[in-house]
């Protein structure tokens, strides 16, 4: 899996870190996590899930039939959790570096 992760991929993994979810639940959770900035369409979501399953970061947890339709639940795998942890740490370091630079710029040269 390519890193850094694209934001939709990061948010899908983040959503699955809590509990197994089905497609519609993931679409709603990603929208909530992104404050509505990321609106996944079903085709985009299932393409991403297929890639994540192929990469071993996500697995099918279970399937159930609801109103005559198959509902597939996905879960984060251990390697998926490791990638999510590493990516979260990478972003945390970047935020820290940017915050430090911005603070220094506000204070002026030699005052940081």
From TrEMBL:
Pfam families: PadR
Transcription regulator PadR N-terminal domain: residues covered: 12-84
Domain of life: Bacteria
Gene3D superfamilies, per the entry: Winged helix-like DNA-binding domain superfamily/Winged helix DNA-binding domain (1.10.10.10)
InterPro entries attached to this UniProt entry: Metal_resp_DNA-bind_regulator, Tscrpt_reg_PadR_N, WH-like_DNA-bd_sf, WH_DNA-bd_sf
PANTHER family: PADR-FAMILY TRANSCRIPTIONAL REGULATOR
Full protein name: PadR family transcriptional regulator
Species of provenance: Dactylosporangium vinaceum
Species lineage: Bacteria, Bacillati, Actinomycetota, Actinomycetes, Micromonosporales
């Amino acid at each position: 899996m390519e890193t850094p992760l694209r934001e939709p991929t990061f948010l899908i993994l983040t959503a699955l870190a809590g509990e197994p979810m089905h497609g519609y639940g993931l679409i709603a959770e990603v929208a909530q996590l992104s404050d509505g900035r990321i609106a996944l369409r079903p085709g985009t979501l299932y393409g991403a899930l297929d890639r994540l399953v192929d990469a071993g970061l996500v697995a099918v947890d279970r399937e159930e039939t609801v109103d005559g339709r198959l509902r597939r639940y996905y879960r984060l795998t251990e390697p998926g959790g490791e990638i999510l942890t590493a990516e979260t740490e990478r972003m945390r370091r970047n935020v820290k570096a940017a915050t430090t630079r911005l603070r220094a710029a506000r204070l002026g040269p030699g005052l940081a």
